[in-house]
Each structure stands twice: as structure tokens, then as C-alpha cells.
Amino acid sequence: MSTPLLDIRIERKSFAGATVLQNLGLRLAEREIVSLLGPSGCGKSTLLRIAAGLERDFSGRVLRADGAVAFVFQEPRLMPWLTVAENIGFADDRDYDRERVAQLIAEVGLEGFAEALPKQLSGGMAQRVALARGLYSRPRVLLLDEPFSAVDAFTRMKLQDLLLQLAEHHAIALLLVTHDVDEALYLSDRVLVMGSRPSGIRQELSVALPRPRDRRDPELARLKAEALTELHLAHAI
Amino acid sequence: MTTKSKPLPAFAGLTWKTRPDAALWRRRAKGLAIPLSLIVLLEILVGIGWVPAYQMPAPSEILLTLRELAEGPLWTHIGASLARVLGGFAIGAGLALLVALWVGLSREAEAYLEPTFAGLRAIPSLAWVPLLLLWLGIDETSKVVLIAIGAFFPVYLNGVAAIRNIDRKLVEVGQMYGFTPRRLARRILLPAALPGLLTGLRGGLSLAWMFLVAAELIAATKGLGYLLTDGRETSRPDVVLAAIIVLALLGKLSDGLLARLERQLLSWRDAFAGQGGEG
């Protein structure tokens, strides 16, 4: 196995005395798709923020491969005063790469919206812009914090397919935080199940199914049962 | 991957609709209904002698006085007042913006400066008048400084609040990109604070007009405030009312200019525009 893109080792991370994460290791290989699955408050978002470098106050270490790590937040977090195109090219100020932005707009299916303002977009469209913004800086890893939790179920499925398509096309790895068991299993090569605080990784589920996957695949249902059992044992549900 | 996202509906249908002119005029008519009926009522009441004309001149008479003034000294008065307001507002608001940015962006500056400004704010601004007269005399400087003091605080307070109310989540996007503090301020903080900054500027301008009148009532030989005093001393309520009308027009005009600037700069805002039939 080649050197991982991301290698995280956390001994302890606590907030105001309460330990949130303990004794946890995570490696992300090139083009791998990994989900962190767990109940809210289990520290999975914190783990992602540590991976992104947004959170620095913890004991442990994070090794990141050269090349940008990009982050897609739970909310689109677009700058409301900038157009869709300017938001996507946000990393390069005013002189962003027009051609690349136009190409990304096409890839996320927002042709014709380059000059639109965020207030004119629906939630799903805004999240597409956020994905494009994440991809703009040519990252090798895209970190996503419950990226589709605020959209309806049908939009979510479309966005999941879009995300897989983008990961394939840009040859990037994904590390995704979610509390949606179906989403985790549908998208990932590996699903890491986290328990209640102080949490580590309780179980690793490998999803060895080829893509494109069928959401009705009985193997996915079997893995879902397994994940739910583990979450149950962790008193998460 | 074989899945392909569906194309989204064309953008054309989403842009704003042009509002029909008729609706706009109907809206304006609604706004004019009350003032116009009051004017007509007043004209009638004074005409039939229910209200004594030496106390409340008829609107038509005020109009005649205004025309008379316009052929004479009115423009000198307007010029003098406008110069004072603009000078005082530019100084006060300019300083306030600088201090607000400094205090808003830096905890350290806040620790040093905020208590001082909070203390100064507790002084009713008109209490400075005697001191300004003692120090600066009764000519232009004391008036401009008083107006600057009046304009300073709304701009400063709104400015600091605007910066401190910026959505932390947007700031985090900048941190994710590793922005320097300078770039963060230019790319995220200033645009995000702009609505609050402009609200402060409009508040500051309206206070600048208020302090202009105060300054000119106290000591002036020209200006609209002087016209007010002069009208009282010569028992000419029509002159007083004419001066009030001019002040209102100038205040509205200057605020309108700022409001227009606000609309242009903040067209991206997704704000509630009020409920009702024709909008």
C-alpha cells in the first residue's frame, strides 16, 4: 500500500475537561472513500476538523500528504455577496481561473447559474456550489461534514451520486462524516462506526461492492443491520 | 459512473420580475394620502378662520414665503448649513469607521479603547456645546466639531456591532483557505459587515442634521438654524415653517442618496421586503 494521504493518530481530545475522542487512528489511502458514522455528539465532526487542521488543540498527530485538503461544510457557507462563479473561485480572489470555474459549474450541473447570487439558489444547488468550491483548489482529499443532511431525501440521493462522480473524475479521496447509515454504506469503501463519548472507532465495515451500486442491494441491507447492531451496542440508539 | 445529474431549470425564470408602473404609482399615492389631506384640511381651517393665521399660516402662504426666500437669502443659508453638515459628517463618520474597524477586528484595541468610548458615549452630546464655545469660539470650527461628535457614535456603535455579528461560519471558510488576517478582512469581514456599517452611516447622517440645527440655534449668522431663530424673533411662523420644510427636504435627500448607495452595494442581501398585495 502506498503512503496514505492522511494519517491521523489521536491520543486524546477534550473540550472543557470532557474527553471527546480517545485512542483513535485513521488512515486514508489515495482515492479511498471512508465514512465516519456515529450518533451526534460522538466527536466525528471534531475528528474531521482535526483532519482539516481547523482544530489544533489535541494530543496526537496528523500527517497530511502534499497537496490541498479541502473541506465541505454541513451548510453551503457561500459568501452571499459573491456570484456562484466568484464563490467557486473564492480561493483565488478576483482573478480566479474562469475556465476551471466554468468547467466545475458544468460538472455539478449548474450551467447558466454562474452569475446567480446564493439567495437565488435552492439548498441542494447551494451545496453543489460548495462542492465545486471545494474542488476548485485541486485537493487530493475532500473532507465532508454531513454535507447533505439539510436537503430532502431525493436531492440527497442525487447529490450522493454527484459526489461519487466527482470523486471518480478528479481522482480524489473522500472522508465523510454522516449519521445516515444508508449514505455511509452506499458511498464508502470503508465505514468506521463510532460510539458514544469518549469515542474511538468501534468497528470497521468494509463495503466490497463495485460501483455503481444498487441502493436495493441485499448486501447493503446486511451491512446496515451489522452497523445498527454495533450502534445499538454502543448505546448510540 | 453512469449516473448523471439532471440539468437544472434555466436561470431565466428565477430573475426578478419587472414591477408594473401602475402598482408603483398606487403605492406612492398611498404614501401621499395622509400628508396631502392634512395640507388641504389646514388650508381650509385657516381660510375659514378657525385657526389664527398669525400662529399657523396657511400652506399656500408658506409656499409664497419659500418662493420669496428662494429669490433672496435662502441659498446662502442652505449652502452654509450643507457645508457644515457635510464637513462634520465626513470627519465624524470617517473617524468612527476607522475606530470601529480597529476595535471590531482587534481584541487588544477593544480592551484599550472600548471603555473610553463607552464613557464618552454616556455624555449627552449637546453637553459639549459650552465647552466647544469656550475652546473654539462661536465660528465654524465649534459647529463642525459638534456635528462630528453627533455623527461619530451611531457610526462607531453600528460598525463595531456589524463586525462582531459576522457569521463565524463564514470566517471559518477563510481560515480553511489559510487567509492572512488582512485578506480575511478584505475578502470576508468587510463585505459581511457592510450592511451594519451602512446602517450606522445613515444614522450618523441623520444625527448630523440634528446637531447642525442645535449648533445654528445657539450661535450663527447664517444657516437654516439661524433662519429658524430669525423667524421666531420676528414673529414669522411662516419663515420658521419654511426653514423646517427645507431641513426636511435636505435630510430626506441626503438620506435618499445613502439609501440608494445601500441598495446598490447590498443587492445580494436576501432580506424580507414586507408583505402585501402589490409589494
What do these coordinates show?
The complex is a heterodimer of chains A (237) and B (279). By secondary structure, chain A is an alpha/beta fold. Chain A has a domain at 1-67 and 142-152 and 174-237: 3-Layer(aba) Sandwich (Rossmann fold), CATH 3.40.50.300. Chain A is built from 7 helices and 9 strands. Chain A has a 6-stranded mixed β-sheet with strand order 5-6-7-3-8-9, sandwiched between helices. A 3-stranded antiparallel β-sheet of chain A has the order 2-1-4, with helices on one face. In chain A, β8 (190-194) and β9 (201-206) form a beta hairpin. Chain A is globular and about 50 Å long. The N and C termini of chain A lie far apart (36 Å). By secondary structure, chain B is mostly helical. Chain B has one domain: MetI-like fold (Orthogonal Bundle). Chain B has 10 helices and no strands. In chain B, α2 (59-71) crosses α10. Chain B is flat, with a radius of gyration of 25 Å. Residues 1-16 of chain B have low confidence and may be disordered. Chains A and B meet through α5 of A and α7 and α8 of B.
What's this, in brief?
The complex is a heterodimer of chains A (237) and B (279). With 237 residues, chain A is an alpha/beta fold.
Helix-strand blueprint:
The complex is a heterodimer of chains A (237) and B (279).
Chain A: E1 6-15, E2 18-28, E3 33-37, H1 44-52, E4 59-64, E5 69-72, H2 84-88, H3 98-107, H4 123-136, E6 141-145, H5 153-170, E7 173-178, H6 181-187, E8 190-194, E9 201-206, H7 218-233
Parallel strand pairs in A: 3-7, 3-8, 5-6, 6-7
Antiparallel strand pairs in A: 1-2, 1-4, 8-9
Chain B: H1 21-47, H2 59-71, H3 74-105, H4 107-121, H5 129-136, H6 140-164, H7 168-176, H8 181-218, H9 224-233, H10 237-265
Helix pairs in contact in B: 2-10, 3-4, 3-6, 3-8, 3-9, 5-6, 6-8, 7-8, 8-9, 8-10, 9-10
